[in-house]
Amino acid sequence: MAAAHGDRYAALNFAREDVTRYPEGSPERIKLISEDIPRYMQGAVTSKDADAIFAMGGLLTFPGLLSDPLPGLAWMLTACSIGYDCSMANEDIGHGCVERGMCDPNMTLRESFQREWPAEPFARVYALEQEITYKFRAGDVDGLQEFMRLRAQAIGRVDGP
Question: Are 55 and 12 contacting, i.e. CB atoms less than 8 angstroms apart?
Answer without folding.
Answer: yes
